[in-house]
Design goal:
CATH superfamily of the domain at 80-337 in chain C: Type I PLP-dependent aspartate aminotransferase-like (Major domain)
Strand content of chain C: 5-15%
Strand order of the largest sheet of chain C: 1-7-6-5-4-2-3
Distance between the termini of chain C: 27 Å
Low-confidence stretches of chain A: none
Mean pLDDT of chain C: 92
Strand content of chain A: 5-15%
Number of domains of chain A: 2
Chains: A alpha/beta (455), B alpha+beta (129), C alpha/beta (504)
Number of helices of chain A: 13
Structural class of chain A: alpha/beta
Shape of chain C: globular
CATH class of the domain at 80-337 in chain C: Alpha Beta
Oligomer: heterotrimer
Shape of chain A: globular
Chain lengths: 455, 129, 504
């Protein structure tokens, strides 16, 4: 019986102590007709050895090949030490740190994480993670809506500007989660030449708005003019939410330094910092803000304090905002977060450090540029957007992207992400990414394959 | 034993009211503060805000709870106790004195619907486990 | 020490950085960061040592018995962890073409089918990333169901007063008003109160069975009939599924939409607070609203169902398909146990809980519901000990830490004063349960003769009792080194061009 330690003697002794004749008797309070369960649709159990074999075969079906897909999940080198330490039982099988004295390891680590994220974003405080980038943005929007409502006690529906150049899945999730509230989500077009979200586009979309979301880089890999957009929004007394790639923030100006006043909130997907692609999850969402907004921040937050002897220690704090205390009036319904991913990410950031992360970002970008220079030599292949980009770019192809990707797969290349379904106005366009994990021979292999496929 | 001064009036939701010359002073009772524990944060009502009888107008937060404060007399808030913003423990130490929350000027309300001290004493006793 | 206190300027794990140079970097300088973010500057050895030491300050399932009620802290199988790290899974991009992703998709599909079978529901979506997100999805589905039928007056969700906080929080998130229903002295939902509360405004009720009170609500079929007759739907919070896994199915009890907590029932690791996975399952009439994406099978081939194929779905809740790695782990757990093993889970979880209850009862502790059998968990109340010995649940919980046991859940559910909610799970041996009971007995003795031991507990951990009031009044949420000006440092970044020929 996997994982059940009881011997027959144990069971007899325990039933005797309880005063029951059989285990089945312990279910006597449950109406008998509810206990007729047919599990024949569930396969019989297998041994761990058989499981290894089964999963080994299935893992082979998941062909990783050479991957040039970005689109919100990025391949980076993760030092072996990160997951060796993160999967220690003391980290991996610990629970939420409600008994603080028995969880100082996790709590101190989260405090260090909060420090690193806040600083990376150029803001004052951070929480200890949300589920992922898209749902994290949804929570940031709900937080911004609370702040906007609180300000003037206003009763009109808040208006949120969502650039179309923001990841299509993030926009879908925002609609699904935020859409159940009284709010107006307005999509804002992008400039067809540069790929950027511009002020004329914002003005056209909604003359009066309360919250502006600025992605950096945006979904096309394009770098927005964050200073101009932030200043425009602030002059209209709007709240600004930056949705950013955290690795890029080691290199680029972070949200807290945008424009004259800085953005108010920063959120995004933490995956590029030490989390493997792993079929799409688990990743983690981060959320940072200016000090004045801290009480509206959802999710768990760790604070430093002292114990009875005056020794430094860490606890979950500001819990009165959370669901287990405030219940119906909580800032969010979130309970479980992405604890283990935060542990790994913190170790990763500690190993790379500020210089290392900046270097990774720069090399990743250079790789993408090198790939772009190669692929542009193929007849019919064009770079679509003219603005500066970060480690990802959009190419227009002379043939159906869907068929090109199929043909590239046969040559062991995952060429990128097909933009046609989400952006039909762009035509046959492909989003291509290269990071520091791609070597020169990988880039040349892509070039060779693309030449063949398009000839 | 929580203190329940005879000169005040009380609401069912553990607020106290004191009639002044210029309006009413409002706070939370000794019983309320002891149930909440050490207060860590207070969100006071908006100055010049209008609140109906029984409307949520403030939040008092401790480590283990965040409780709404319900306005016991309809009116307009004309003063809030800034001292407790940086020193929430004043509410624990002196709930009827230095720990007052806010003052209202009322339109048409008076204290007749509020509980008298012995009525409130009874209510507190009945709530005890 | 905090990691930043180990930092030395420009120290780093050089070997982990890419080795090539970065000359001719072409992004405009005005876009670049001029300051250095506050990240540790330490060697690899420093980082490994620091975090390894931190880990040793934690209690965990791998090191301690963890009887947290409603959390199901069972053994997290190590073999499963190993397999989940196979490169085919770990290195796989979520937006890979379907034909390239069959290995993961067959596992996800199988888990969907297994969940259908053990819950008795029609369809499953694995995408919610935790129980709370599963609840949000479920309540949103109830809302969508009524709205599509033009039944827009239904704006109330009923919730028992013993419910977990995420229930009312999720209902409010979806725009509903919450109406609380009291429980009776036996721990069941008060039927009369329920009947008085249902009506044309009832959108649904959120329940868990067994409830958070640790007992099985025997009137569940009557409750289902009452709510259904009033036109409402039934939502099942699957947090306590460990009590009935393979023995009773929520679908058979009358529930229309349910969520599971894979990080509880299916033994995926708790990771210090996450990640979890909260799949949501629905009956036939609510299935069209399930969140996307889901895995479908055509012949021997698997593909993703998105909003296009499911136009009435409440939408997407995750950037990709949720916590894929957790889905994989839960699937492996279900395959390892198989149909017989899944049933054994609830049998032995219930045996262990009743045994521990019997031992504690015999030792003089007071069960909250003395006439009821335990399910996979039970509550004892320290109300009388609080009066006679002046110690409370918190004191006992903290003293248990000194005995090498993680404390049970305290002060939840809120209904029962000075309570401890105890869930041993099926993976613990009789010896462990006996040791726990013996420790509780010992602690009770200490309460009579040396109460200070409890009041000032814990004594043997890395820290003593922590000042939570100070933490909330004087917020210290980020480390501020003495020579670093908060978040916008004056310390300039080295210019990227300086390292043009530098290996790192």
């Amino acid at each position: 019986m996997p994982f059940i330690p009881h011997t027959e003697e144990d069971v007899h002794a325990m039933l005797a102590t309880i005063g029951a004749a059989s285990i089945e008797d312990l279910f006597a309070e449950i109406p008998k007709e509810l206990r007729q369960v047919d599990l024949s649709a569930v396969p019989a159990g297998i041994s761990e050895m058989e499981l290894f074999r089964l999963m080994h075969d299935r893992a082979k079906l998941n062909n990783s090949l050479r991957c040039f897909i970005g689109a919100g999940a990025y391949e980076h080198h993760i030092p072996g030490a990160v997951w060796e330490v993160a999967t220690r039982g003391e980290f991996m099988t610990a629970y939420t740190p409600y008994q603080a004295e028995a969880s100082q390891g996790s709590l101190q680590l989260m405090y260090e994480f909060q420090t690193m994220m806040a600083s990376l974003m150029g803001l004052d405080v951070s929480n200890a993670s949300l589920y992922d980038g898209a749902s994290g943005l949804a929570e940031a929007l709900l937080m911004a809506m609370r702040l906007v409502h609180g300000k003037s006690g206003q009763s009109t529906e808040p208006v949120i500007l969502l650039p179309k150049a923001l990841h299509p899945h993030y926009r879908e999730v925002a609609r699904a989660i935020v859409g159940t509230h009284a709010v107006k989500l307005v999509e804002v077009d992008y400039d067809a030449k540069t790929g950027r979200t511009t002020i004329p586009h914002l003005e056209k979309a909604a003359p009066e708005a309360h919250i502006l979301v600025i992605p950096q880089p945006n979904f096309f890999g394009v770098l927005e003019d964050v200073d101009a957009l932030t200043d425009w929004a602030k002059q209209k007394k709007m709240l600004v939410i930056g949705v950013v790639n955290p690795l890029a923030m080691a290199l680029l100006k972070p949200p807290g330094q945008w424009g004259k006043t800085g953005a108010d909130l920063a959120c995004g997907e933490g995956q590029p910092l030490g989390i493997p692609l792993s079929c799409g999850g688990p990743y983690y969402g981060f959320l940072c803000c200016k000090q004045e907004y801290i009480r509206q921040m959802p999710g768990r937050i760790v604070g430093r304090t002292k114990d009875l002897d005056g020794k430094e220690g860490f606890v979950l704090t500001l819990q009165a905002r959370e669901q287990h205390i405030r219940r119906a009036k909580a800032t969010s319904n979130i309970c479980t977060n992405q604890g283990l991913m935060v542990i790994a990410s913190t170790i990763h950031m500690s190993l790379l450090g500020p210089n290392g992360l900046r270097k990774v970002a720069m090399v990743a970008h250079n790789r993408a540029k090198a790939l772009l220079d190669l692929l542009r030599t193929v007849p019919g292949v064009e770079l679509v957007f003219s603005a500066p980009y970060f480690h990802e770019f959009v190419l227009r192809l002379p043939r159906s992207v869907e068929s090109v990707l199929q043909d590239l797969i046969k040559r062991h290349i995952q060429g990128g992400y097909n933009l046609q379904p989400a952006y039909p106005e762009l035509g046959e366009c492909l989003l291509v990414c290269a990071t520091e994990t791609k070597q020169q021979n990988d880039l040349e292999a892509y070039l060779k394959a693309l030449k063949e496929v398009l000839s | 034993m929580s203190s329940i001064p005879k000169t005040l009036r009380y609401s069912k939701t553990h607020e106290w009211v004191r009639k002044e010359d210029d309006g009413y002073t409002i706070g939370i009772t000794d019983h309320a503060q002891s149930m909440l524990g050490d207060l860590v944060y207070i969100e006071l009502p908006e100055l010049e805000g209008h609140y109906e009888n029984g409307q949520e107008c403030a939040v008092v937060e401790s480590v283990k709870a965040a409780a709404d404060v319900y306005c016991p007399i309809a009116g307009e808030v004309f003063e809030i106790n800034e001292a407790i913003i940086d020193n929430p423990q004043l509410v624990n130490e002196d709930p009827y004195g230095k720990g007052w929350l806010f003052k209202v000027r009322t339109f048409d309300g008076d204290m007749k619907d509020l509980l008298k001290p012995d009525e409130y004493t009874q209510q507190v006793a009945s709530e005890a486990h | 020490m905090i990691i930043f206190e180990h930092s030395r300027k420009n120290r780093s794990a050089r070997a982990q950085q890419p080795s090539e140079s970065v000359e001719n970097f072409d992004l405009p300088a005005s876009m670049l960061r001029q300051d250095k973010p506050l990240l540790p500057e330490v060697s690899e050895m420093d980082a490994v040592r620091h975090y390894t030491r931190l880990s040793r300050k934690n209690f965990s399932i791998d090191t301690h018995f963890y009887p947290l009620g409603s959390c199901t802290m069972k053994y997290n199988p190590r073999g499963i962890n190993r397999i989940s790290q196979f490169h085919g899974f770990l290195g796989h991009h979520p937006l890979s073409l379907d034909e390239n992703s069959q290995g993961f998709m067959v596992c996800a599909y199988e888990l969907q089918e297994i969940i259908k079978a053990v819950t008795g529901m029609h369809s499953v979506s694995l995408t919610p990333m935790a129980g709370a997100q599963g609840e949000l999805a479920g309540v949103a589905m109830i809302r969508a169901y009524h709205q599509e039928r033009g039944d827009t007056a239904r704006d109330e969700i009923l919730v028992p007063d013993a419910a977990h906080g995420t229930n009312p929080a999720s209902a409010v998130q979806c725009g509903f008003k919450v109406r609380e229903i009291p429980s009776n002295a036996e721990g069941d939902v008060d039927l009369a109160a329920l009947k008085a509360a249902v009506g044309p405004r009832t959108a649904g009720i959120m329940l868990t069975n067994p409830s958070t009170l640790g007992v099985f609500d025997r009137n569940i079929q009557e409750i289902a009939k009452t709510v259904h007759q009033a036109g409402g739907l039934l939502y099942y919070d699957g947090a306590n599924l460990n009590a009935i896994l393979g023995k009773v199915r929520p679908g058979d009890m009358g529930f229309d939409v349910i969520h599971l907590n894979l990080h509880k029932t299916f033994a995926t690791p708790h990771g210090g607070g996450g990640p979890g996975c909260g799949p949501v399952a629905a009956s036939a009439r609510v299935a069209p609203y399930l969140p996307v994406p889901m895995v479908a099978k055509l012949g021997e081939h698997y593909h993703w169902l998105t909003q296009k194929e499911c136009p009435r779905s409440i939408g997407r809740l995750s950037t990709f398909m949720g916590n894929a790695g957790i889905i994989l782990r839960a699937h492996m757990y279900a395959r390892l146990l198989g149909r017989e093993g899944l049933k054994r889970v609830s049998e032995y979880a219930t045996l262990n809980a009743n045994y521990l209850l019997a031992r504690l009862k015999a030792a003089g502790f007071t069960p909250a519901y003395p006439t009821r059998l335990a399910t996979h968990e039970f509550i004892i109340t320290l109300k009388s000990e609080a009066k006679t010995l002046h110690i409370n649940a918190l004191d006992v919980a903290k003293r248990l830490l000194d005995y090498g046991f993680h404390a049970p859940t305290m002060y939840f559910p809120l209904l029962v004063p000075e309570c401890l909610l105890i869930e041993p799970t099926e993976t613990e041996s009789k010896e462990t349960l006996d040791a726990f009971a013996d420790a509780m007995i010992q602690i009770l003795k200490e309460a009579e003769t040396q109460p200070e031991l409890l009041k000032k507990a814990p004594h043997t951990l890395p820290v003593k009792r922590l000042d939570e009031v100070k933490a909330a009044r004087e917020l210290d949420l980020v480390y501020k080194p003495k020579n670093h000006a908060a978040s916008n440092s004056d310390a300039p970044m080295e210019s990227p061009l300086l390292h043009a020929s530098d290996g790192g």
